[in-house]
Amino acid sequence: MIYLTEEHIKQIEAHGERTFPFECGGMIIGHFDAEKGKRTIELLPMENAMDAAEQHNRVLILPKDVLRAERFAREKKLDVIGYYHSHPDCEAVPSQFDLDHALPVWTYIIVSVEAGKAVDVRAWEMENDRSKFNEEEILRETKELFTDAFSR
Ligand SMILES: [Zn+2]
């Protein structure tokens, strides 16, 4: 499972609405915790590296963006724990392209944006053998509850 605050969800929805009808994407920065799941601390929006003709259905993460995100996370003693992107006029379900480019352990959050409005946010984690994605539970926490759950 992955913890996100309402604020994080709103940020992902707003990014997808802003770039509509093109996809948006960004890194999820936080902690891995074996017992409590993944904790999102902040989001790092990324440029879409695909050219305009392909942007409506594909987002490419450039190696330099991954490096930048890893450096950004390390400086804060955090990890890159996943990637979010939007599916314009399409369900919040990973595509074959998403599966082909997925990394193990990372959480993939997808926001479905229909006619410019975010309608659904779902999280996915790839099966270790790369055969498929499994849906991951999103725990939406208020800031207070969220801090408490991780400070015990
Ligand atoms: Zn996708």
Descriptive report:
With 152 residues, the protein is of the alpha/beta class. The chain has a single domain, classed as Cytidine Deaminase, domain 2 (3-Layer(aba) Sandwich), CATH 3.40.140.10. 27% of the residues lie in helices and 39% in strands. The protein has helices at 6-19, 63-75, 96-100, 143-151; strands spanning 2-5, 25-33, 37-46, 79-88, 107-114, 117-126, 133-136, 138-141. Strands 7-6-5-4-2-3-1-8 form an eight-stranded mixed sheet. The model has no long low-confidence stretch (mean pLDDT 88). Bound molecules: zinc ion. Zinc ion (ZN) binds at residues 85, 87, 94-95, 98, 110.
Number of strands: 8
DSSP helical segment count: 4
Overall tally of structural domains: 1
Separation of the first and last Cα atoms: 18 Å
Rg: 15 Å
Largest sheet: 8 strands, mixed
CATH topology: Cytidine Deaminase, domain 2
User: Mean pLDDT across all residues, rounded?
Assistant: 88
**At CATH's second level, what is the architecture?**
3-Layer(aba) Sandwich
Shape: globular
Cofactors and ligands: zinc ion
Main structural class: alpha/beta
Helix content: 25-40%
Question: Can you list the strand order of the major beta sheet?
Answer: 7-6-5-4-2-3-1-8
Poorly predicted segments: none
User: What pattern of helices and strands is seen along the backbone?
Assistant: EHEEHEHEEEEH
Query: Class in CATH?
Result: Alpha Beta
